[in-house]
TrEMBL record:
Organism phylogeny: Bacteria, Bacillati, Actinomycetota, Actinomycetes, Propionibacteriales
Leader peptide range in chain numbering: 1-23
Superkingdom: Bacteria
Keywords: Signal
PROSITE patterns, alphabetized: PROKAR_LIPOPROTEIN
Region of interest (Disordered), ranges: 27-53
Protein name: DUF4352 domain-containing protein
Presence of keyword Signal: yes
Length: 227
């Protein structure tokens, strides 16, 4: 199940866990210009001022979905509609797993701001979609992200996911294993919704570039300013 409906940001994070450093985009001349995110100005967790919370119809095998925070944009990919929410901002509880190759400092340091996003996925088609067979891949990057690897947050932020009512950062976290055995199909009927999220260093005022790919269909790309 972990290979379905996965977040490619996590794939990049785990692939680099053993390495512990990032490779910069471009040639060596540009690598020296890379900078790490600046420390956070906020000391407390916060949600969007225009908070929106609502319940969605979830399939029997999935956890409920909550729309907390501020909706940034909606991406249409095939019969799926993906609402992207800025669920909240909080301080990183520890250093991130990535290290800048030039400075040898964590790309995300303890106390830096993390932004938590929630991907709310709804079937708007006329028939069910088996998410065990159809992969939904979402890649999110800031417009000035200088590295080849995907963005990632930090470990130890599980309580923050719970605070912002996000079903974790992995496809396994969408399922209610009291109702799903992990081996069966994952049907998403028309009108039903599932969700998972992500977290990474917050770059206020920058554009977040999103690429969504559903099954074998062509990727859908968009960007949205995040304040």
């Amino acid at each position: 199940m972990a290979e379905n409906l996965r977040n490619r940001s996590l794939i990049g994070a785990f692939a680099l866990l053993a390495v512990g450093s990032l490779a910069a985009c471009g040639n060596d001349d540009s690598a020296s210009d890379d900078t790490t995110p600046k420390p956070a100005e906020s000391e407390t967790a916060e949600t969007g001022e225009t908070a929106v919370e609502g319940d969605f119809k979830a399939p029997a095998w999935a956890k409920p979905t909550f729309a907390t925070g501020t909706k940034l944009t909606t991406v249409k990919a095939g019969d799926l509609s993906i609402d992207v929410y800025k669920a909240g901002v909080a301080e990183a509880p520890e250093d991130g797993i990535f290290v800048d190759p030039e400075t040898r400092k964590p790309v995300i340091a303890k106390g830096d701001e993390l932004v938590f996003v929630n991907y709310v996925i709804t079937n708007e088609g006329s028939g069910p979609i088996d998410l065990d067979e159809v992969d939904v891949e979402i890649d999110a990057r800031w417009d000035d992200w200088p590295y080849v690897q995907d963005m990632a947050g930090v470990k130890g932020d599980e309580e923050l996911y719970m605070e912002f009512k996000i079903n974790g950062d992995d496809d396994d976290d969408m399922a209610d294993f009291a109702a799903y055995d992990g081996d069966g199909p994952m049907p998403l009927a028309p009108g039903e919704t599932v969700s998972f999220g992500d977290s990474f260093g917050f770059e206020k005022g920058h554009d977040l570039e999103l690429e969504v790919e559903v099954g074998d269909e062509a990727p859908v790309e968009t960007s949205v300013r995040v304040d």
